[in-house]
Every structure is written in C-alpha cells, then in structure tokens.
Amino acid sequence: MSPPAGSTARQAIKVNAAVITSRENRWLKRFRSALAGEHGKDGIVGVEGVRLVEAALGSSQPVEALLVSESGVRHLPRLTSVLVPSVPVLRTSNKLFASVADTQTPQGIAALVRPRQSTIENLVGGAALLVALVGVQDPGNVGTIVRAAEAFGASGAATCPAGGIGTADPFGSKALRASAGSALRLPIVHGISRTILLAQLRMLGVKIYAAVPAEVAATEDSKNRKSDADSTLLCPWDIDWKIPAAILIGNEGAGLPADLVRSADARVYIPQAAATAAVGIESLNAAMAASVLLYEAMRQRNSARQKNS
Prior knowledge:
This protein is of the alpha/beta class. It has helices at about 5-15, 25-35, 50-55, 95-100, 120-125, 140-150, 175-180, 195-205, 215-225, 230, 260-265, 285-309; strands at about 20, 45-50, 65-70, 90, 110-115, 130-135, 155-160, 190, 205-210, 235, 245-250, 265-270.
C-alpha cells in the first residue's frame, strides 16, 4: 500500500529538522546576510515568507536550506508537495529568526536559493521577447516588471545601469516580494553593460524598441522633425511583436539615456486620454508602461497562434 500523499515530505521534515540555538551558528549567519541582500560569491539569495518560499521550492532552482521558527512550523504542511528530502530543514526560536528576518512582522519561514545563471543567448531563442530595465531604481518597479514579464510570456529580462544610475537588484528582498516569486522562475541577466546588451541583441537579430513617455512623443511630434531617428515613433499596436523583440524601459525620472534611444530601432510610446484637469496627466510609471507593452506583445502573439491553429 502506497503512503498517503505528502507523507514522504513530512518524514523528510522530521529527519532533517536540526535545531539552531546560537546566534553565531553558520547557517544563521548565512540566512542573515542573504536576507539582507548580500549574495556573496556563490550567488545565493534569501527569500522570506511562505509564498516566496513556496515559489522557490517550486521553481526548479536549487534550494540550499529552509529555516523555520517555532511559529513558522505551521507553514510546513503547505510545502509538502514541493519540498524534497534533500533540502535541509532547520528550526530556531522566534527570537533568533527575527534577528535574521528582513521584514518587521516575519512569518517565520525563509529559504536560501541559488538563482539560475542566465546569458542573453539563453533569453533569445525563437520569437524571443525580452524586457531590459535601464536604471530602474525602485525595487517595487523592478519586481512588478519582472512579474509582468513572466505573466505576459516574455522569454526573460535584463538589467543594466544608465550612466551612474544602477538598476535595483531583482533578487533583493523588496523586488522579490514585488515579483511574487517571478524573479526565481524567469531567466534574468542582472547588471549587464548596456553597450554589450545592444551589441548582443543586434547580433542575435532582435528588434530593439525604446519606451519613451507620451509627453516626450507629443513634444517631438509637434516639432514635426524629419530625421530618420525621429520618424520611428510608434504606438504599441503599430509594432510587429511577433518577431524577436526587446523593450527598453528607463529610469523613473530621467527615462532612457538619449544615446540609447538613438541606438534603438524605433521608439514606442503609449497614447493617453486627453487631459481633463488643468494640471494634466502624468506619464505612466516604468512598471505600468512595461506591463502595457508586454501585454500588447502577448496579445499579438496569441492572436497569431490562434489563426495558425
């Protein structure tokens, strides 16, 4: 007679359950640094909270260890379907767990995860769809864009600095929470030079679209410029998203660097409703703009698949 579903995982929990009582324990130190955003040479990141831990265990990425507090033990039954016996489960007190946690009201469960190492070549294959974050500083925006990228079928994401402005770490605690675990599943290349990114995308035959604010597009359109660089200003639905494409999303305040915009194959903007207030409507923020563009790409691709089926 086969054992009940989940019983193997429950047995593994009991066998692996070591109790940590010292603040100087090596595992506790690793969790403390990882949850504080220090990845170290091994690239290990820390995730905290039952939803993110569940996402990590179900992501196919190597999980080094699980840490649960006295109160966090209640979450273990929820993880039985994704927890494998090879993952060490470490227990500690609520007080010691709070000393390593990154949140003010910890749920008492955390994991050490080794995210996949990706390259641009890994992200580009078939009808690739890539979103590149250039100097996006807000971790919430970074996580939301990564979440939208996974939800709308992107093949991956890349982050790169814009001059002296770096992009927030997609594996940092705030960005991870905003991504709801998508950063653990979606292939990501973090911290690549924008020069190398553009060169590799061009070599791989990927069309590059620079997202610009609606007010910038309106200003340039009103000037009626005729140069080649200004003739490629498109709405999302004017673009053929069915071919390999990359979307460049810039800094929340400064947008994309001018040289990067000029290097793109075209610029894309999202038209907005006419202003009804004297102050007018501000442009969409980085995460909202990326989500709209990624959704349009998915819509076109789904429509093409339905026609061909």
